[in-house]
């Protein structure tokens, strides 16, 4: 094969399946054959033009595959061999900027940003996971996948599941005896539900809209003690009822809904922690009752993507426990149906609202 197909965003709501030449592999590079690419709500925002992009961009930042070709230096850099199953999660960054030196290369402005902020305009082009192949730059972070993880489990551990651990446990500090409220029962909410339960939370509550009934039911199966229909019930009152007025120790808001913020703040106990991990997109401004944060000494934590610590811990725990992570995947699409997949994830297709969708090229 001399060319690779890739789902390329060339402008807002303009997605094309383009062909690119398969590049020669440099000594410090590698070529990955994509096995699965995950699609999440951020891809919907990219597609709709709510987040600036350096068009053209190959979408897909949740990436699992197998090493097809490997440069001699790349084997040393990544510690992998041809044929290995791997997850690609972000990049090491430049190693010299303030964020890299502080151990947070995911914020490095010079890193290779797969599926988002690295353009496909110039060779080697293939910098997104919704494609047949992907080019592995020397700054990419590869993680070998154990035989105990299915393809679906691997791509989820490398993305949404690691986020759940990062946000609920590392950022939120959820631990033994806590009450954790998760606002939003989608894929990220499911992962946070699992992570909070694994961390020993005494109560895990999940809120969602009436349209989320199937997702809320899955949250119960994944460890939620109770679910709240936010269209029918007051979320704050429900949390008060479940806790006897003690309220939540940790709230993780992955809803991306500006309307949920007020209840996220009000549902916290004094000196509780609010983790905001849902993107609204488009630079929307949301009013916040600052006095409530001040008087109650609320800790407010923004949350971006997971780091390598969360990913490695998540992969090890899922493999050791055999937890059925793949039950999250409700829809699998082919590469030619990428636009349909993204629109379905965005709730635009009647009768098709995936909990988690993946692309198998």
SSE topology sketch:
Elements: E1 3-11, E2 14-21, E3 30-39, H1 41-48, E4 57-58, E5 62-70, H2 72-78, E6 85-91, H3 98-101, E7 133-136, E8 140-144, H4 151-171, E9 179-183, H5 187-198, E10 203-208, H6 213-221, E11 226-229, H7 235-243, E12 248-253, H8 260-266, E13 268-276, H9 290-295, E14 299-302, H10 308-321, E15 331-333, H11 338-345, E16 357-359
Parallel strand pairs: 9-10, 9-12, 10-11, 12-13, 13-14, 15-16
Antiparallel strand pairs: 1-2, 1-4, 3-5, 3-7, 3-16, 5-6, 6-8
Helix pairs in contact: 4-5, 4-10
Task: Describe this protein with a few key phrases.
single chain; 361 residues; alpha/beta; Quinone Oxidoreductase, Chain A, domain 1; Rossmann fold; globular
Enter the CATH topology name of the largest domain: Quinone Oxidoreductase, Chain A, domain 1
Quickly give the structural class: alpha/beta
C-alpha geometry: globular
Rg, Å, rounded: 20 Å
CATH homology superfamily name of the largest domain: Medium-chain alcohol dehydrogenases, catalytic domain
User: Secondary-structure element sequence?
Assistant: EEEHEEHEHEEHEHEHEHEHEHEHEHE
Helix content: 25-40%
Measured distance between first and last alpha carbons? 14 Å
Highest-level CATH class of the largest domain: Alpha Beta
* Relative strand content: 25-35%
Which oligomeric form is depicted?
Answer: single chain
Number of strands: 16
Low-pLDDT runs: none
| CATH A-level architecture of the largest domain | Alpha-Beta Complex
Number of helices: 11
Mean pLDDT: 95
Number of domains: 2
User: Biggest β-sheet, characterized?
Assistant: 7 strands, mixed
């Amino acid at each position: 094969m001399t060319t690779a197909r890739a789902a390329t965003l060339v402008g807002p709501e303009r997605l094309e399946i383009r062909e690119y030449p398969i590049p020669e592999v440099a000594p410090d590079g590698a070529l990955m054959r994509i096995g699965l690419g995950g699609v999440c709500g951020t891809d919907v925002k990219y597609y709709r033009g709510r987040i600036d992009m350096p068009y053209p961009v190959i979408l897909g930042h949740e990436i699992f595959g197998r090493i097809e070709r490997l440069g001699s230096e790349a084997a040393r850099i990544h510690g992998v061999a041809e044929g290995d199953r791997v997850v690609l999660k972000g990049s090491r960054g430049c190693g010299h900027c303030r964020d890299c030196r502080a151990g947070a290369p995911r914020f490095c402005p010079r890193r290779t940003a797969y599926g988002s902020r690295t353009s496909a305009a110039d060779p080697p082009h293939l910098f997104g996971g919704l494609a047949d192949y992907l080019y592995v730059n020397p700054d990419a972070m590869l993680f070998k996948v154990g035989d105990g993880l299915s393809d679906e489990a691997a791509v989820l551990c490398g993305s949404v599941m690691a986020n759940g651990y990062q946000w609920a446990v590392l950022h939120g500090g959820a631990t033994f005896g806590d009450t954790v409220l998760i606002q939003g029962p989608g894929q990220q909410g499911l992962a946070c539900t699992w992570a909070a339960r694994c961390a020993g939370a005494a109560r895990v509550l999940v809120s969602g809209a009436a349209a989320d009934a199937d997702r809320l039911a899955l949250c119960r199966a994944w460890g939620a003690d109770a679910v709240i229909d936010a269209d029918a019930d007051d979320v704050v009152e429900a949390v008060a009822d479940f806790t006897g007025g003690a309220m939540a120790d940790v709230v993780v808001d992955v809803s991306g809904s500006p309307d949920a913020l007020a209840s996220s703040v009000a549902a916290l106990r004094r000196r509780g922690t609010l983790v905001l991990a849902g993107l609204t997109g488009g630079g929307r401004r949301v009013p916040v009752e600052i006095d409530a944060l001040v008087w109650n000494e609320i800790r407010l934590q923004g949350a971006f993507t997971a780091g390598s610590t969360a990913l490695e811990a998540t992969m090890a725990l899922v493999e050791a426990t055999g937890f059925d992570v793949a039950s999250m995947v409700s829809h699998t699409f082919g590469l030619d149906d990428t636009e349909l997949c993204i629109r379905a994830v965005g709730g635009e297709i009647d009768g098709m609202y995936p909990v988690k969708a993946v692309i198998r090229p």
